[in-house]
């Protein structure tokens, strides 16, 4: 029983001398054995481990197996995806987690993107990393009453307060 790896086999019903064997063209599809050609042998069932040779190989990248427009490298009976950008995995289908070691602050949620991330802030924070606290303006206490507009009958008096305690900051209410 044959044990091993068969990568090519052609059988002829004539014998060749050494120089004729050496002169047989390689990787030419129409130059095949007239008893059995590799193309037929490939279809036989047996205890063989058959793999395509350079001569039989196809473009394994033809089906564009790599995702996210990453580069496919054709190999012998295989392909390799070369992930240069934001992805990893055998088919460049796994988005690299850019949230690892992220700089989002104050309990923000990190949103992974392509070669970057964004911070989704809790409501009282803002900034790219949610590092800035939003301060809503607050009322001061009332000032003292002003003078009455008349000396008798009905008049009016004025007192004021401002929205400045604290001053609104970073987009807070005012
Ligand atoms: Ca190939
Ligand atoms: Ca990512």
TrEMBL record:
<dbReference type="GO" id="GO:0032991">
    <property type="term" value="C:protein-containing complex"/>
</dbReference>
<feature type="domain" description="EGF-like">
    <location>
        <begin position="95"/>
        <end position="131"/>
    </location>
</feature>
<dbReference type="InterPro" id="IPR000742">
    <property type="entry name" value="EGF"/>
</dbReference>
<dbReference type="InterPro" id="IPR001881">
    <property type="entry name" value="EGF-like_Ca-bd_dom"/>
</dbReference>
<keyword id="KW-0245">EGF-like domain</keyword>
<dbReference type="Pfam" id="PF00090">
    <property type="entry name" value="TSP_1"/>
</dbReference>
<dbReference type="InterPro" id="IPR018097">
    <property type="entry name" value="EGF_Ca-bd_CS"/>
</dbReference>
<keyword id="KW-1015">Disulfide bond</keyword>
<keyword id="KW-0106">Calcium</keyword>
<keyword id="KW-0677">Repeat</keyword>
<dbReference type="GO" id="GO:0045197">
    <property type="term" value="P:establishment or maintenance of epithelial cell apical/basal polarity"/>
</dbReference>
<dbReference type="GO" id="GO:0005886">
    <property type="term" value="C:plasma membrane"/>
</dbReference>
<dbReference type="InterPro" id="IPR036383">
    <property type="entry name" value="TSP1_rpt_sf"/>
</dbReference>
<feature type="domain" description="Pentraxin (PTX)">
    <location>
        <begin position="1"/>
        <end position="56"/>
    </location>
</feature>
<dbReference type="InterPro" id="IPR051022">
    <property type="entry name" value="Notch_Cell-Fate_Det"/>
</dbReference>
<keyword id="KW-0732">Signal</keyword>
<keyword id="KW-0325">Glycoprotein</keyword>
<dbReference type="GO" id="GO:0007157">
    <property type="term" value="P:heterophilic cell-cell adhesion via plasma membrane cell adhesion molecules"/>
</dbReference>
<dbReference type="InterPro" id="IPR001759">
    <property type="entry name" value="PTX_dom"/>
</dbReference>
<keyword id="KW-0217">Developmental protein</keyword>
<dbReference type="GO" id="GO:0007154">
    <property type="term" value="P:cell communication"/>
</dbReference>
<dbReference type="InterPro" id="IPR000152">
    <property type="entry name" value="EGF-type_Asp/Asn_hydroxyl_site"/>
</dbReference>
<keyword id="KW-0472">Membrane</keyword>
<dbReference type="InterPro" id="IPR000884">
    <property type="entry name" value="TSP1_rpt"/>
</dbReference>
<feature type="domain" description="EGF-like">
    <location>
        <begin position="57"/>
        <end position="93"/>
    </location>
</feature>
<dbReference type="Pfam" id="PF00008">
    <property type="entry name" value="EGF"/>
</dbReference>
<feature type="disulfide bond">
    <location>
        <begin position="83"/>
        <end position="92"/>
    </location>
</feature>
<feature type="disulfide bond">
    <location>
        <begin position="121"/>
        <end position="130"/>
    </location>
</feature>
<keyword id="KW-0812">Transmembrane</keyword>
<keyword id="KW-1133">Transmembrane helix</keyword>
<protein>
    <submittedName>
        <fullName>Uncharacterized protein</fullName>
    </submittedName>
</protein>
<keyword id="KW-1003">Cell membrane</keyword>
<dbReference type="GO" id="GO:0023052">
    <property type="term" value="P:signaling"/>
</dbReference>
<dbReference type="GO" id="GO:0005509">
    <property type="term" value="F:calcium ion binding"/>
</dbReference>
